[in-house]
């Protein structure tokens, strides 16, 4: 219980610090987002309307930065993330609500598939080291070094242009309206297949190489030798003794990946013009959209913290030493 309380206190302080930075960092960027909104309307707004916009977005010059900070916390506790400059006058919460499911489905499923396949393959390669399967390691190293966007561009050129097997951009066919209709779901799956394949190919090698190296290290430990001496089945020794301990670093990395799933694979979503949260974050940064950037960063921060808490719990279950008092 003490372990859990200490970790909870740590994450609460971290959340406060992250939200504070989330407020101040966008305001340190050069430029004036309200002025860019006014420019969009080509000077059609009156002076009173301009002052109202500054007040509406909490950027009134008559209000101190400290008061803006307090007002920001007050809006957070009431669930108000403000209005988006980019999608004005749509609330930020509504923009995120529309984009988040696309990212969760695409990046979430891709990350879980790549983690599962990479971890299982790495455990097998590490346990069967010294065989012909080691020839796969240079291939894995090559793909782990390829950036997402470069592999995405190659995938578009080969599988969407040269051989038009998949669409090159978008999240669904423009002839459909987003719904739970079977035709729309199939269209969304079809458009998301190429980005998903790109993410899996780019990330599976990292999980595989990390698990393989840890399995090789763990296989030389005394408890694995004792397990063999007991006459246990090789599969039991491999999974219950070697893989269970070798997977701990991957669990930590997977938890961080789960947190960043909410942020999306920014470059991949831009390359494929995929309507995920990473793409709207890019638009928000380009337009200096304070409320949208703060809303997206807040969701990402809380997701990463929650994922780290899950990782701590998983560590405590897999390795009792982590919950022992000093």
UniProtKB/TrEMBL annotation:
Keyword Transmembrane belongs to the record: yes
Keywords: Membrane, Transmembrane, Transmembrane helix, Transport
Pfam families with a match to the protein in the record: BPD_transp_1
Keyword Cell wall biogenesis/degradation part of the UniProt annotation: no
Gene3D superfamilies referenced in this protein's UniProt entry, alphabetically: MetI-like
Entry membrane topology: Multi-pass membrane protein
Segments forming domain ABC transmembrane type-1: 100-311
Cell location: Cell membrane; Membrane
Sequence intervals crossing the membrane: 7-25, 102-127, 139-164, 184-209, 254-275, 295-318
GO cellular component: plasma membrane
InterPro entries per UniProt: MetI-like, MetI-like_sf
GO biological process terms held by the UniProt record: transmembrane transport
Annotated family: Belongs to the binding-protein-dependent transport system permease family.
Name of the molecule in the record: Peptide ABC transporter permease
């Amino acid at each position: 219980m003490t372990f859990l309380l200490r970790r909870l206190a740590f994450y609460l302080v971290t959340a406060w610090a992250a939200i504070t930075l989330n407020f101040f960092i966008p305001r340190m960027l050069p430029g004036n987002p309200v002025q860019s909104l006014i420019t969009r309307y080509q000077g059609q707004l009156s002076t009173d309307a301009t002052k109202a916009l500054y007040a509406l977005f909490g950027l009134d010059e008559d209000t101190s930065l400290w008061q803006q900070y307090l007002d920001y916390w007050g809006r957070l506790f009431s669930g108000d993330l403000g209005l988006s400059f980019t999608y004005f006058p749509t609330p930020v919460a509504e923009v995120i609500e529309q984009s988040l499911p696309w990212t969760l489905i695409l990046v979430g499923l891709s990350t879980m598939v790549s983690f599962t396949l990479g971890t299982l393959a790495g455990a097998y390669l590490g346990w069967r080291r010294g065989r012909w399967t080691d020839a796969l390691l240079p291939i894995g190293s090559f793909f782990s070094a390829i950036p997402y966007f470069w592999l995405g561009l190659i995938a578009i050129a080969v599988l969407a242009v040269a051989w038009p097997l998949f669409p090159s951009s978008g999240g669904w066919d423009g002839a459909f309206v987003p719904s739970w209709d079977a035709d729309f779901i199939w269209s969304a799956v079809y458009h998301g297949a190429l980005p998903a394949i790109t993410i899996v190919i780019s990330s599976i090698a990292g999980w595989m190489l990390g698990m393989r190296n840890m399995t090789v290290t763990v296989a030389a430990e005394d408890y694995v030798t004792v397990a063999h001496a007991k006459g246990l089945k090789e599969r039991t020794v491999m999974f219950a003794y070697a893989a269970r301990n070798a997977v701990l670093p991957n669990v930590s990395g997977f938890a961080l990946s789960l947190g960043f799933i909410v942020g999306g694979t920014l470059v991949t979503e831009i390359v494929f013009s995929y309507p995920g949260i990473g793409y709207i974050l890019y638009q928000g940064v380009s337009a200096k959209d304070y409320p949208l950037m703060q809303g997206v960063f807040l969701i990402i921060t809380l997701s990463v913290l929650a994922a780290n808490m899950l990782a701590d719990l998983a560590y405590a279950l897999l390795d009792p030493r982590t919950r022992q008092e000093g």
